[in-house]
Specification:
CATH architecture of one domain: 3-Layer(aba) Sandwich
Distance between the termini: 53 Å
Number of helices: 18
Structural class: alpha/beta
CATH topology of one domain: Rossmann fold
Radius of gyration: 23 Å
InterPro entries: AMP-bd_C (IPR025110), AMP-bd_C_sf (IPR045851), AMP-binding_CS (IPR020845), AMP-dep_synth/lig_dom (IPR000873), ANL_N_sf (IPR042099)
Protein name: Long-chain acyl-CoA synthetase
Strand content: 15-25%
GO molecular function, one term: medium-chain fatty acid-CoA ligase activity
Shape: globular
Keywords: Ligase
GO biological process, one term: fatty acid metabolic process
CATH superfamily of one domain: ANL, N-terminal domain
Amino acid sequence: MGTLGFWRLAEKDPDWIAAVDPDGTEHTAGDLLARANRLVHALRGLGLEKHDGICGLVPNGVDGLVLYLAALQAGWYYTPINWHLTGPEIGYIVADSEAKAFFVHERHAAEGVRGADEAGLDASRRFAFGEVPGFTPVETLVAEVPDIKPEDRSNGATMHYTSGTTGRPKGVRRALAGIDPDDSAELMTFLLTFFGYTPGLPAGGGHEAHLVTSPNYHTAVTQFGGSALHMGHTLVYMDRWEAEDSLRVIEKYRITNTHMVPTHFKRMLTLPQETRERYDVSSMKWAIHAAAPCPVPIKKQMIDWWGLCIWEYYAATEGGGTIASPQDWLDNPGTVGTRWPISELLIVDENGEEVPPRIPGTIYMKMAGVQFEYKGDPEKTAKERLRDYFTVGDIGYLTEDGHLFLSDRKSDMIISGGANIYPAEIENEIILHPKVADVAVFGIPNEEWGEEIKAVVEPAAGVAPDDALTEEIFEFLKPRLAKMKWPRTIDYTDALPREPNGKLLKRKLRDPYWAGRTTSI
């Protein structure tokens, strides 16, 4: 302990370029350190104490990073809020997290103001990056305070809200250890060492740069970006992800590591060959992906293109998970890896009994020394646990040598004629059709069978969504899937409802078919 952590590295090398905003503006570590220090002094002046919380409704970039760095050295909880939410949804999180300060970027002013009003937040607790009606500019908040190192520093944490499948989102809250922030940050970097990450220049290493591709309100984005920063990597932010632009940024900043989702891979692979060959991506060492199982052929194409830098993991905001190195995946195509050294896995049946290898069941996990609670909801906390393991409702199986394979989410499983059908298996085949850009498969009501399989397809650019395409897709599936797994019907849409991190909002597609029914199967 004692070599990593942003605050230590910034004091050691204040001129290190620690972050680059989406518009190309570079920020030194010294500048970020000073901004974070001033924010701590200013908020303490308003009465914030250890274990208090702050919220941020801010786009990707250093404004949110400063909130993160301030909270994590002052012993506070920082909750980044999804900027796609409406005012009432934002207000719920601000109120539920008991935020003592709420920061809103002017880009999200309208819903941010509605959220603050919904939460009943006092005007003295509202702060703005830019101009937001009724909010005090951050520049005014910190105008009269020093940028020196705060006293009585201790580690804080992020408290992300899980999207969940039912009800209101819940904040995943972990106990604070009350230790030195840099020591805590160094412990955070332990996860990245599983992937072979090495320190960047301020810690005595070489050039390392992390590309932030997805919104900063997602747990994995914060975890991987924050941990990379604490290892001395430069954070390069993207505002809105586009396939070719990501290749341009990788080449320009010599990006060495990033966090992506399978949708990113699919979109990049659909670029014309001459476009893909225009950019040098040889600097990449760790292209880490998660969020959904990646179809085997798509990942194989990425490895053929980018080389042995494509790593995969499976995890949850609550903690625990698996990891698959590029070679391990090539040896076991389709796996999401084996358990982390500090994690354990358990696959159980509907009675909570452990199942044998290769038998699908509900996946439970735990991580050594890590306990959490869903803030304000002990019932949900207990419901999702089995002994000291927890689940997010995913279905999968383990092989004899401990490799985990995912089947689907329990809530997405289709029960048709008494048979369990996993949509992910069907989606992974349809997405391989060259005229398909994206696909979602789910169950809709069928009076005879209980459920029937529905597919909604986003055609590739320039492809007509007609009966001819439907027939092509069915012909494509003939040698790939048993007919019982085929969609009964295929609908088309201009764009599937996905979060920017790639997570498919399947409920938006599925729920209208079940409206007015007392059961969902």
